């Protein structure tokens, strides 16, 4: 069990570290870290390269969250350990080993983790995320609201103490990565979807 968990954590960090947005941008001759907001996620890809590359980035970032947790579910059968693997893949995305510990905000990858870890809480998070974006046109605010409410969603739809603890940790990671966005939102300088960063 210990060796299996170790291998799953290492694999999760490595998979999380794959910067799909950067790779897709590179195919188009764009250095994603030097355009728009400089972020490697789908929102910056959308701003700088359009819908199709953004959709590819989003899909890749979601799948790299689901695959390690599916493997953990198959081999470990333990919600706490599955959550640890999920947190490992999010950390890999946020602090990519292939980008000198730079990375994304973790939204899509966290949703990918949640789709396997707690599908109903994941669905609630996506609905809240999309609703907040629709109402405000701020992608960052959608993430902040939906993941800020993740522990509530987890409590309502998957009332497990272990999963609730993991949900607080996922929410905390996301809030930390959105600290700059929160500051810009308060100053009124955060770009809306469709605006250049």
Fold blueprint:
Blueprint: H1 2-17, H2 20-27, H3 42-49, H4 51-76, H5 79-94, H6 107-117, H7 119-136, H8 139-148, H9 150-157, H10 161-177, H11 179-187
Helix pairs in contact: 1-4, 1-5, 2-4, 3-4, 4-5, 4-6, 5-6, 5-10, 6-7, 7-8, 7-9, 8-10, 9-10
List keywords for this structure.
single chain; 197 residues; mainly alpha; 11 helices; 75% helix; globular
Quick take:
The chain has eleven helices and no strands. The chain has 197 residues and is an all-alpha fold.
Radius of gyration, taken over Cα atoms and rounded to an integer in Å: 16 Å
Overall, the morphology is: globular
Helicity, as a percent range: over 70%
Q: Major sheet: size, sense and barrel closure? A: none
Per DSSP, what share of the residues sits in E-state strands of 2 or more residues? under 5%
User: What is the chain-wise order of helices and strands?
Assistant: HHHHHHHHHHH
Mean pLDDT: 92
Give the total of beta strands: 0
Number of helices: 11
Euclidean distance between termini CA atoms: 46 Å
Q: In terms of structural class, how would the helical and strand content be classed?
A: mainly alpha
Which stretches are low in confidence, meaning pLDDT under 50 for 5 or more residues running? none
How many structurally independent domains? 1
Describe this structure as you would to a colleague.
The protein starts with a helix and ends in a 10-residue tail after the last helix. It has one domain. The mean pLDDT is 92. Helix 4 (51-76) packs parallel to helix 6 and helix 5 (79-94) packs antiparallel against helix 6. The chain is mostly helical. The protein has helices at residues 2-17, 20-27, 42-49, 51-76, 79-94, 107-117, 119-136, 139-148, 150-157, 161-177, 179-187.
